[in-house]
Amino acid sequence: MSKDSVKLLNIWPSMFGLRVHYALDLKGVSYEYQEESLSNKSKELLEANPIYAKIPVLIHNGKPICESLVIVDYIDSVWPGSHKLLPEDPYEKAVARFWADFGDKKLYDAGNQLIQAMGEEHKKAGEDFKWALMKIDEALGTIAPGKPFFGGDAMNFADVGLAPFICRFKGYQKVGGFVLPGPEEWPNLYKWVDAVNSVDAIKKSTPSPDEVAEFAEVLRKRVLGAA
Hints:
Layout: E1 6-10, H1 15-27, E2 32-35, H2 43-48, E3 57-60, E4 63-66, H3 68-78, H4 90-116, H5 119-143, H6 157-162, H7 169-174, H8 187-197, H9 200-205, H10 209-226
Parallel strand pairs: 1-2
Antiparallel strand pairs: 1-3, 3-4
């Protein structure tokens, strides 16, 4: 049997690309990494994702797969191994998908507005972001009480979907002015963050929170300078 050819097209600050890194590393899949530039997209990226022309793109044996959560689902199907990310139970699978998608719908936009907006928009972004984190804390206590992850004792699809936000917290606080409540208010969230950060496969690809915060500061200056 020939060896799989696996290649990831991405840019390092992308939380969407981090999901793919995490899934591949949790599965122990070897892959080639190609750093992209959003201001000068490679021919390979444009050909692999002609619809959106966006990262990340996973190319497996010459076939491109696009959109981060779709890619994570694909990885879990192709390399099931001993660490399944999506539960077999249909309801548990739906719950895991819901919380991964929750990050896109509730955390991502609010987080971007924390970095890029001012005035009332910025204030609302802070409120929305805090509400979303509160709901994650509540969900962790309900879905996996006493356990560190949405998946219980091991990371699952929801954990992989949400984990990339962790390295952005410092930027949200330092650059976006977000005040993160303490562990006494959100004990489940803090336990989850500590658990995620202790996983070797996560450490392997996670960028420095300081570097991510620096990137956020540059982005904020660029956006506000153009306003």
